[in-house]
Amino acid sequence: MAQLSRDDVLKLAHLGRIELEEDEVDKFAAEFDAILKYVEQLQTVDIDGLEPTSQVTGLMNVTRADEVIDYGYQAKDLLRNVPQVENDQIKVKRMIV
């Protein structure tokens, strides 16, 4: 793999919105190079026959069914217990000034 040039490092820093001082460019070039070598190493791993894994614990999402439950009340009946109603909605004092 080719070594990253100074321009490559500055472009990556710009894309990542990283402000680099002049003395940091060489440091980041070495770090980016180490990261790319590691990615190159990962690409050589044999993954034939492996299934993609999104999580490893075996847990599953447990959710209840979205069912409408009829409690036998009408909205108008419930709104009779509210101090103020406007357009079939509960009216409250303004909270944001």
Q: Give the strand content.
A: under 5%
Average pLDDT score: 88
Shape: elongated
Secondary-structure element string: HHHEE
Main structural class? mainly alpha
Q: Would you report the number of β strands?
A: 2
The strand order across the widest sheet is 1-2
**Main sheet makeup:** 2 strands, antiparallel
Give the end-to-end Cα distance, rounded to a whole number of Å.
Answer: 60 Å
Low-pLDDT ranges: none
The percent range for helix content is: 25-40%
Q: With helices defined by DSSP (H or I, 4 residues minimum), what is the helix count?
A: 3
Radius of gyration: 30 Å
Task: List strands and helices in order, with pairings.
Layout: H1 6-15, H2 24-43, H3 75-79, E1 85-86, E2 89-90
Antiparallel strand pairs: 1-2
Explain this structure.
With 97 residues, this protein is mostly helical. The protein has a domain at 6-43. The protein is built from three helices and two strands. It has helices at residues 6-15, 24-43, 75-79; strands spanning 85-86, 89-90. A two-stranded antiparallel sheet has the order 1-2. A hairpin with a 2-residue loop joins strand 1 (85-86) and strand 2. The longest helix has 20 residues, at 24-43. It is elongated and about 75 Å long. The model has no long low-confidence stretch (mean pLDDT 88).
